[in-house]
Design brief:
The structure is a single chain. This protein has helices at about 20-25, 25-30, 30-45, 55-60, 65-75, 90-114, and strands spanning about 50, 80-85, 90. By secondary structure, it is mostly helical. The chain has one domain (about 20-114). Strand 2 and strand 3 (about 90) form a beta hairpin. The radius of gyration is 16 Å and the shape is globular.
Length: about 110
Protein backbone atom coordinates (compact mmCIF):
# COMPACT_ATOMS: atom_id res chain seq x y z
CA UNK A 1 0.00 0.00 0.00
CA UNK A 2 1.42 3.34 -1.05
CA UNK A 3 1.54 6.01 1.62
CA UNK A 4 1.42 9.52 0.25
CA UNK A 5 3.23 12.35 1.92
CA UNK A 6 1.47 15.67 2.01
CA UNK A 7 3.19 18.48 0.19
CA UNK A 8 4.33 21.20 2.55
CA UNK A 9 1.54 23.66 3.17
CA UNK A 10 -1.21 21.33 1.94
CA UNK A 11 -3.97 20.44 4.32
CA UNK A 12 -4.46 16.70 4.83
CA UNK A 13 -8.14 17.05 5.76
CA UNK A 14 -11.34 18.80 4.78
CA UNK A 15 -14.50 19.69 6.67
CA UNK A 16 -17.34 17.24 6.15
CA UNK A 17 -20.94 18.13 6.96
CA UNK A 18 -23.07 14.96 7.15
CA UNK A 19 -26.42 16.80 7.07
CA UNK A 20 -25.44 18.68 3.90
CA UNK A 21 -24.10 15.52 2.30
CA UNK A 22 -27.14 13.38 3.07
CA UNK A 23 -29.64 16.06 2.02
CA UNK A 24 -27.90 16.87 -1.28
CA UNK A 25 -30.26 16.09 -4.17
CA UNK A 26 -27.53 14.44 -6.23
CA UNK A 27 -26.40 12.21 -3.36
CA UNK A 28 -30.00 11.23 -2.60
CA UNK A 29 -30.27 9.77 -6.10
CA UNK A 30 -27.07 7.70 -5.81
CA UNK A 31 -26.73 4.03 -5.06
CA UNK A 32 -24.50 2.90 -2.21
CA UNK A 33 -21.83 2.02 -4.78
CA UNK A 34 -22.04 5.49 -6.34
CA UNK A 35 -21.79 7.16 -2.94
CA UNK A 36 -18.63 5.19 -2.19
CA UNK A 37 -17.12 6.15 -5.55
CA UNK A 38 -18.07 9.78 -4.96
CA UNK A 39 -16.37 9.84 -1.55
CA UNK A 40 -13.19 8.27 -2.95
CA UNK A 41 -13.09 10.83 -5.76
CA UNK A 42 -13.68 13.68 -3.30
CA UNK A 43 -10.65 12.50 -1.34
CA UNK A 44 -8.47 12.33 -4.46
CA UNK A 45 -9.81 15.71 -5.55
CA UNK A 46 -8.75 17.26 -2.25
CA UNK A 47 -5.31 15.69 -2.16
CA UNK A 48 -4.47 16.31 -5.80
CA UNK A 49 -6.07 19.71 -6.45
CA UNK A 50 -8.73 18.28 -8.70
CA UNK A 51 -9.18 15.11 -10.70
CA UNK A 52 -7.79 14.21 -14.08
CA UNK A 53 -10.44 14.49 -16.78
CA UNK A 54 -9.56 10.99 -17.96
CA UNK A 55 -11.87 8.02 -17.59
CA UNK A 56 -9.05 5.46 -17.26
CA UNK A 57 -7.39 7.34 -14.41
CA UNK A 58 -10.68 7.74 -12.57
CA UNK A 59 -11.34 4.01 -12.99
CA UNK A 60 -7.92 3.33 -11.52
CA UNK A 61 -8.62 5.58 -8.51
CA UNK A 62 -11.85 3.65 -7.94
CA UNK A 63 -10.33 0.23 -8.69
CA UNK A 64 -13.23 -0.72 -10.96
CA UNK A 65 -13.68 -2.03 -14.49
CA UNK A 66 -14.61 0.10 -17.47
CA UNK A 67 -18.05 -1.52 -17.50
CA UNK A 68 -18.66 -0.70 -13.83
CA UNK A 69 -17.36 2.85 -14.30
CA UNK A 70 -19.71 3.44 -17.22
CA UNK A 71 -22.59 2.27 -15.05
CA UNK A 72 -21.89 4.74 -12.23
CA UNK A 73 -20.16 7.66 -13.94
CA UNK A 74 -23.25 9.77 -14.74
CA UNK A 75 -24.46 10.19 -11.16
CA UNK A 76 -20.96 10.48 -9.70
CA UNK A 77 -19.41 12.83 -12.24
CA UNK A 78 -22.48 15.09 -12.14
CA UNK A 79 -21.02 16.26 -8.81
CA UNK A 80 -17.88 17.61 -10.49
CA UNK A 81 -17.24 20.42 -12.96
CA UNK A 82 -14.49 20.80 -15.52
CA UNK A 83 -11.99 23.61 -15.06
CA UNK A 84 -11.27 24.30 -18.73
CA UNK A 85 -8.08 26.19 -17.95
CA UNK A 86 -6.53 23.42 -15.86
CA UNK A 87 -8.20 20.54 -17.68
CA UNK A 88 -9.16 19.02 -14.32
CA UNK A 89 -12.42 18.18 -12.60
CA UNK A 90 -13.32 19.84 -9.32
CA UNK A 91 -16.19 19.72 -6.86
CA UNK A 92 -17.64 23.21 -6.22
CA UNK A 93 -18.40 22.56 -2.53
CA UNK A 94 -14.97 21.08 -1.89
CA UNK A 95 -13.35 24.05 -3.61
CA UNK A 96 -15.38 26.40 -1.38
CA UNK A 97 -14.22 24.47 1.71
CA UNK A 98 -10.58 24.68 0.56
CA UNK A 99 -10.85 28.43 0.01
CA UNK A 100 -12.45 28.86 3.44
CA UNK A 101 -9.71 26.80 5.04
CA UNK A 102 -7.00 28.93 3.39
CA UNK A 103 -8.75 32.13 4.50
CA UNK A 104 -9.07 30.88 8.10
CA UNK A 105 -5.41 29.86 8.13
CA UNK A 106 -4.36 33.34 6.98
CA UNK A 107 -6.51 34.95 9.69
CA UNK A 108 -4.97 32.73 12.39
CA UNK A 109 -1.48 33.53 11.13
CA UNK A 110 -2.17 37.28 11.23
CA UNK A 111 -3.66 37.01 14.72
CA UNK A 112 -0.60 35.09 15.92
CA UNK A 113 1.72 37.79 14.61
CA UNK A 114 0.01 40.48 16.71
Amino acid sequence: MEVRKMAKGKSPAFQFYPADFLSDGKVCCMTLEEIGAYMILLCHCWLEDGLPNEEKKLQKFLKISKKKFQKIQKNVLDCFQLDEEKGRLFNPRLLKEKQQQIENSKKRKLAAEK
